[in-house]
Amino acid sequence: MSPTSTGSLTAESLSRDQRAERWQITDTVYIVDFWRKISAPPAADPEKMGHQQSSFRLSNARDVNEVLAWASDNAAGRSFVVYAWVTSGGEPGLIQLYGVDPTVPVPQ
């Protein structure tokens, strides 16, 4: 299959040998960050206002679809970002799976 593109996204067919992969996480822990833009007081520049963050750790989910459903059901008008919480080289970190963190500049 030849590469396909949509906007800036490019998808290429991948020949994959699962025997070459060293590890896989099947009991994924997810982090969900909900974001609400803080209302600007009168005469303030709304572009300079911040965001309020509420974070949740989710475990024992069947898959990411269950996490997305939970986040959608609990968003209450807020945007949200879903991460997989992983450890690499003994250091904890996050892999962004869904959404856009409004506090991180978008690459140009």
Helix-strand pattern? EEEEHEE
Biggest β-sheet: count, sense, barrel? 4 strands, antiparallel
Strand order, biggest sheet? 4-3-5-6
Please report which band the strand proportion falls in: under 5%, 5-15%, 15-25%, 25-35%, 35-45% or over 45%: 35-45%
Number of helices: 1
Mean pLDDT: 86
Helical content, roughly?
Answer: 10-25%
Shape: extended
Quaternary state of this entry equals single chain
What are the low-pLDDT stretches, counting only 5+ consecutive residues below 50?
none
Task: Kindly state the number of beta strands.
Answer: 6
Number of domains: 1
- Terminal Cα span: 30 Å
Please give a handful of descriptors for the protein shown.
mainly beta, 108 residues, extended, 38% strand
Describe this structure in words.
There is one protein chain. By secondary structure, the protein is mostly beta strands. It has one domain. Helices cover 10% and strands 38% of the residues. The protein has 1 helix and 6 strands, in the order E-E-E-E-H-E-E. The protein has one helix spanning 64-74, and strands spanning 4-6, 9-11, 29-37, 51-58, 79-88, 91-98. The strands form 2 sheets. It has a 4-stranded antiparallel β-sheet with strand order 4-3-5-6, with helices on one face. A hairpin with a 2-residue loop joins strand 1 (4-6) and strand 2. It is extended, with a radius of gyration of 18 Å.
Task: Annotate the secondary structure layout.
Layout lengths: L3 E3 L2 E3 L17 E9 L13 E8 L5 H11 L4 E10 L2 E8 L10
Antiparallel strand pairs: 1-2, 3-4, 3-5, 5-6
Summarize the structure.
By secondary structure, the protein is mainly beta.
